Amino acid sequence: MRAFPYRRLRRAGISSTIVALGVLVLAGLGFTTAGVVWPTRSIASAADGTADTMNMGHAATGARYWKAVAGTNGAGTGITRTYFISADEVVWDYTPTHHNGITGEPFDATADTYVRSGPGRIGSRYAKCLYRGYTDGSFDQRTVRSADEAYLGMLGPIIRAEVGDTIKVVFRNACPFPTSVHPHGVFYGKGSEGAPYDDGTGNKLKLDDAVAHGRRHTYVWKVPERAGPGPGDGSSVMWMYHSHTDEVADTYAGLIGPMEITRKGDARPDGSPKDVNKEFFVLYAVMNENESPLLKTNLSRFASRLLPPHLDEDEEFGESNLMHSINGYVFGNQPMMTMKKGDHVRWYVMSMGTEVDLHTPHWHGNDAVVNGMRMDVVSLLPGTMVVADMVPDDVGTWLFHCHVNDHIHAGMLTRYRVLP
Ligand SMILES: [Cu+2]
Q1: What is the mean pLDDT of each successive set of 10 residues along the chain, which is 420 residues long?
Q2: How far is the CA of 116 from the centre of ligand 1 (A)?
Q3: Which residues are 373's β-sheet partners?
Q4: How far is the CA of 274 from the centre of ligand 1 (A)?
Q5: Which residues are catalytic?
Q6: Beta strand 345-351 pairing with 278-288
Q7: With the C-alpha atoms ordered 141, 147, 152, 154, is the resulting torsion angle positive or negative?
Q8: Cα 32 to averaged position of ligand 1 atoms, centre (Å)
């Protein structure tokens, strides 16, 4: 009996904690969504569906709103843009400058955990499978990346299109395991999805799922309005594409790239938005080389003899292969991302990976607008893509780094430069 009121109090305590947490979560959500496109006021004005539901400050409801969600079906009214992309096995170096670009010093003991090769340690160089662009279907000649685009590093070629266009990816797999190209955001049929699972299809519609070594497949993706900017977006949005044959292993091998879709009428001939001077595509990801299909290759090629007896149980070995990278670079080794003061800069940032891949890229020196809100840090989770617009006013060389403490130690830092 005496325990009863005590228990009740406890329960009340727990419930009020839950309620308080719930309120916090709801407040957070409400705040976020209210700031973006769905303010909670003036619902009545749009209830008949005749009001302009797309402007900030109006409720997102009614027929006009749902028409905007669906988008008009303008797919196929534009041009066809063909990209020749190969999955190539390459040797990738996470630290091509061989020093810590953030401190300007040689690597210290913490950095050496990840970048130094030796007995049972692979170091900074790994065989990887990366998407690489070619000039035509002969796959003889690689497309050249300008010095300005060197920062893209590990990422596959930027696929660009305008709403209404059709994207054609002529894909060749030169990697030693089956791979594919799976797009986000755009409209694809079952023969161009690039992911094997029991979806009730067979035969020809399965050829895209896993392209064997030395084989090819052509993926065709339409770009309807719903693949482009929505009511709250700027002139362009970002999607990613990646291999999805063995999704986890393939992406750890490095098979991932950015895609950009620009609103109809807002694109330059190359598909980029006319109102943006400078674009940067950035992937924050802990590349877990332990799960790469090329781990054995890497051990035999880059770790010197005297391997510890039980590598799979060696925690330090596991840690040494967790490359906390930005476009495949660690400890400030990424080629500089450069812009001018006053430029219209659009950052496309994304993440991939597992539960350690919650990243919070932070720009020193300048601020950005994300979803209509001013920020200098953006939130990423595995598989998320965020667009951030910046007009830099602060000249200098600035840090751009993940704000997660553990990731700072592990070298998830880079720099960008604003010229006068
Ligand atoms: Cu991080």
Answers
A1: 33 39 40 38 37 52 88 86 98 98 97 92 96 98 97 98 97 98 97 94 94 97 96 95 97 98 97 98 97 93 72 83 98 98 98 97 98 96 97 98 97 98
A2: 21
A3: 370
A4: 32
A5: 402
A6: parallel
A7: positive
A8: 22
Kindly report the number of other CB atoms within 10 A of residue 358's CB atom.
17
Residue type, 346: R
Asked whether the beta carbons of 239 and 335 are under 8 A apart, the reply is no
For 80-419, the fitting CATH number among 3.40.640.10, 2.40.37.10, 3.40.710.10, 2.60.40.420 is 2.60.40.420
Domain range list for the chain: 1-39, 80-419
User: How far apart are the C-alpha atoms of 222 and 185, rounded to whole Å?
Assistant: 10
Give the pair of three-digit tokens for residue 154: 């590990």
Query: Can you give the pTM of this predicted structure?
Result: 0.86
Q: Are 127 and 90 contacting, i.e. CB atoms less than 8 angstroms apart?
A: yes
The letter for the amino acid at 216 is: R
Task: Find the Cα–Cα–Cα–Cα dihedral 46, 48, 51, 53, rounded to 10°.
Answer: 50
Tell me the backbone φ, ψ of residue 353, rounded to 5 degrees.
Answer: 130, -140
Structure tokens at 390: 């910046």
